Amino acid sequence: MQLRLLNVAVDGGDLRVLQWGTGKRVAVAVHGITASGMSWQAVARHMPPDWSLAAPDLRGRGHSRDLPGPYGLDRHIRDVTAVLRHFGGKPVLAGHSMGALVALLTRDAHPELVRRLVLVDGGLPLPVPEGADPDALLDTTLGPAIARLGQAFPSTEAYLDFWRAHPALAGHWTPDVEAYVRYDLTGEPGQLRSRAVEDAVRADGRDVLTDKPFTEALERLTRPTPVLTAPAGLLGAPPPLISPEAAAAWTERVPALRPQVIPETNHYTIMFQKEGAAAVSQAIRSAAL
User: Fold this and answer.
1) Which residues lie below 8 Å from residue 249, measured CB to CB, with a gap of 6+?
2) What are 97-113's pLDDT values in tens digits?
3) 252 CB contacts (<8 Å, ≥6 apart)?
4) Sign of the CA dihedral running 103, 62, 229, 136
5) pLDDT digits (tens, 9 = 90+) for 182-235
6) HSE-up of 78 (CA within 13 Å, CB side)?
7) How many CA atoms within 13 Å lie on the side-chain side of 112?
8) What is the average pLDDT score of the chain?
9) What is the Cα–Cα distance from 279 to 119, expressed in whole angstroms?
10) What domain range includes position 282?
């Protein structure tokens, strides 16, 4: 699918949207906490020609990095709602990681704009130890993904090497991963940085790890909602972000949920590797039926 770039007007400026394909069936896809719309390219490759997949760069990421704060999930809900309205016709709404929580809350706020929901290794509330510092928990959980936000890199190759060493991607490097990493880079040689704004990431992380109405939004789901999960986590090894026990418990509580483990994937490769991307694409297409 050919990629084209467009802008959607939101509060404070334009939100960048990456669109693969020009088909009449539309999926809007929301990326994770330190990512960008480019994380959906491998999934887009598996979409049929009668589909379009549109993935915004969330506020404070990618080519939406210069949009002003305040940040947080409520702001993302408004921005994603603007993207849904731009396309019209009740798109399928998909989300990966934090993007799954954004998609969940957006669908809950505006069910009339969304055909169905697809959650990819996210969308279920995470257990947070009582009294935990959200910023410290983010640093521990996300590891290299958040560590890079405070670093400057001398060259593009140095940034690629940083990502090649990521424990979830070592041994799983693909052209789509490289395109995602290159898209994330901004600045001049010697002072290259991630496009993700650290203040935006931390504000969103605090929302994810504190009190938001995720449970209520889940309990209002009535149509079958796939929850695709990876057996390995953010650092490429177990435990997973969503355990089978957690998925089973939420499914008992919310019968609309349809959990599916995608074998031999981790939190990143469920989006980038052929098997994971194909499964996500299939779930999106099935959600349109």
Assistant:
1) none
2) 999 999 999 999 999 99
3) none
4) negative
5) 999 999 999 999 999 999 999 999 999 886 899 999 999 999 999 999 999 999
6) 13
7) 1
8) 95
9) 12
10) 3-127+197-287
